[in-house]
């Protein structure tokens, strides 16, 4: 059985990961919290805000996504926002306590002319003293280098699920397409934000497969978002049985044990989570959340609810000025 060693590994087997998932809950959370404390302040949570800068009309068929043009959903296609409008939103997010600003566009891949506008957004957000993150779909190596030149800190591109389950959710791009974009981002010197979505009807073996892929990349993603599916009427996965909350917490904990120096992010789905579930996720090593009224097109918890939860837990936000997570600085 794995014994909670917090050295960074890239040679995990699926059997080892399955053993972690099968641990008694208290033992699993103890290992995860121990791993988390080796690299991070356990009572500090980094806050990010996510803005949809180009909503809807995406040609992809990701079965969970309300922004796909292939499904009849309440989300309507819109044009790319202006640089000025995005920066005005970023200022509001900083005032609300966000230290990272994430911008998402519903594209299969960005056109070069649109990428120039995004680069202006990145430069403007960085000038506010915030970390910058974008998610724009697939990138070429040259596009990744252009974003790096603009000063981009993080690029988000999730693998979503296991290689085996992936084809049941998405057909318009391959798993390898996603890995190629991650490679282009890494080669450009941009931090990688990569995780997945659980609750799409996958088996535990698929959650194991997803974490197996992530932890065995040549470098662990600096940021690992674990998303609980937010169901949108009109998408193929609408009506899927909701994943058990404790299984979600287990997934967060296993991700933290496998990638202890990475920021495991409690991402989509918090609106439907109890305070107790979120508290267990923080105990399991989640070190970041999204704040603000929306996550792209779906609701997010109100600021008052987050403030009350943090007060009850004695958790504080990472200061806006502290742009660099305490990563690879293991406690003595």
Entry summary:
By secondary structure, the chain is an alpha/beta fold. Residues 1-6 and 322-332 have low confidence and may be disordered. It has eleven helices and twelve strands.
Would you write up a description of this structure?
The protein has 332 residues and is α/β, with parallel strands linked by helices. It is 37% helix and 16% strand. It contains eleven helices and twelve strands. Strands 1, 2, 3, 4, 5, 6, 7, 8, 9 and 12 form a ten-stranded parallel sheet that branches. Strand 3, helix 5 and strand 4 form a beta-alpha-beta unit.
Distinctive features:
332 residues; 12 strands; alpha/beta; 16% strand; ten-stranded parallel sheet; disordered N terminus
Question: What is the multimeric organization of the chains shown?
Answer: single chain
Low-confidence stretches: 1-6, 322-332
List the total number of helices: 11
How big is the Rg?
A: 18 Å
* Structural class label: alpha/beta
Helix content: 25-40%
Overall pLDDT, averaged? 83
**How would you describe the shape?**
globular
Residue share in β-strands: 15-25%
Count of β-strands: 12
Distance between the termini: 26 Å
The ordered H/E elements are: HHEHEHEHEHHEEHEHEHEEEHE
Q: Main β-sheet, in a few words?
A: 10 strands, parallel
What is the strand and helix layout of this fold?
Elements: H1 14-21, H2 25-39, E1 44-54, H3 83-95, E2 100-105, H4 112-127, E3 131-135, H5 141-149, E4 154-156, H6 163-166, H7 175-187, E5 191-193, E6 196-198, H8 204-215, E7 223-228, H9 245-258, E8 263-266, H10 275-283, E9 286-290, E10 294-295, E11 298-299, H11 303-313, E12 316-317
Parallel strand pairs: 1-2, 1-9, 1-12, 2-3, 3-4, 4-5, 6-7, 7-8, 8-9
Antiparallel strand pairs: 10-11
């Amino acid at each position: 059985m794995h014994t909670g060693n917090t050295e960074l590994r890239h040679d995990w087997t699926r059997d080892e990961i399955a053993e972690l998932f099968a641990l008694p809950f208290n033992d699993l959370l103890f290992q995860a919290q121990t791993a988390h404390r080796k690299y991070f302040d356990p009572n500090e949570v980094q806050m990010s805000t996510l803005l949809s800068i180009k909503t809807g009309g995406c040609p992809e068929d990701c079965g969970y996504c309300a922004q796909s043009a292939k499904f009849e959903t309440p989300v309507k296609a819109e044009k790319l926002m202006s640089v000025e409008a995005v920066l005005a939103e970023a200022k509001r997010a900083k005032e609300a306590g966000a230290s990272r600003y994430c911008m998402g566009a519903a594209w299969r891949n960005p056109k070069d002319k649109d990428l120039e506008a995004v680069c202006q957004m990145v430069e403007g957000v960085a000038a506010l003293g915030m970390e910058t993150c974008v998610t724009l779909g697939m990138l070429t190596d040259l596009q990744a280098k252009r974003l790096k030149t603009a000063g981009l800190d993080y690029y988000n591109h999730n693998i979503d699920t296991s290689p085996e389950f992936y084809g049941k959710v998405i057909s318009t791009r391959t798993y390898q397409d996603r890995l190629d974009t991650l490679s282009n981002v890494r080669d450009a010197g941009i931090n990688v934000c990569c995780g997945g979505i659980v609750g799409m009807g996958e088996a535990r073996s698929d959650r194991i497969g997803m974490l197996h892929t992530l932890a065995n990349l040549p470098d662990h993603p600096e940021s690992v978002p674990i998303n609980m599916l937010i169901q949108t009427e009109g998408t193929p996965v609408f009506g899927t049985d909701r994943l058990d909350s404790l299984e979600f917490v287990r997934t967060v904990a296993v991700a933290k044990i496998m990638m202890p120096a990475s920021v495991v992010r409690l991402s989509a789905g918090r609106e439907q989570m109890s305070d107790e579930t979120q508290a267990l996720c923080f105990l399991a090593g989640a070190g970041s959340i999204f704040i603000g009224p929306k996550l792209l097109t779906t609701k997010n918890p109100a600021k008052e609810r987050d403030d009350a939860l943090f007060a009850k837990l004695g958790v504080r936000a990472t200061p806006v000025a502290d742009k660099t997570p305490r990563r690879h600085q293991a406690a003595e």
